[in-house]
Amino acid sequence: MQLPGVIRAGGASIPAGASDIHYFTRNGSAEVTFMSGQIPDYLHRAGILPDGEPLFDEKYGTKAVADDEIDLPDGLCGSPLRGPVWIYHSTRATGSSVNVTVERSPTLDDYFRFPARAVVTYNFP
Q: Each residue of 1-46: pLDDT tens digit?
């Protein structure tokens, strides 16, 4: 399957100016990875993180493995994630789920790397 000109991942278009974009589809699901300095905006537009909520609120996500490098999911090419990472999980009204894994700053707890790599995993109709 080919993605459209405006790549939507998990309910929102990926940020303008995103780079190092790769995707993989299989059995009704997709994984998209990209680098961007606009991850907070993407999370809000995708409805994964409500407006006004802190980026690292444990109601919406959790801190994950802090390895220096984390391999991308099987089948997805691109540079590995650099730890630590934060994983957001969102369930749509339709019952489909969206997971977004984002690189956190290794030195500042309340920030992402700049730019940060994100991996978005979701189901599509």
A: 555 556 677 778 999 899 999 999 988 889 999 999 999 999 999 8
Look at residues 101, 117, 120 and name the one whose alpha carbon lies nearest to residue 8.
Answer: 120
Sign of CA dihedral 109, 115, 26, 43: positive
Q: What are the Cα distances from residue 85, in Å, to 26, 94, 120?
A: 24, 27, 13
Tokens 């997805």 found at: 76
pTM: 0.89
Q: Please name the residues in contact with 4: beta carbons below 8 A apart, sequence gap of 6 or more.
A: none
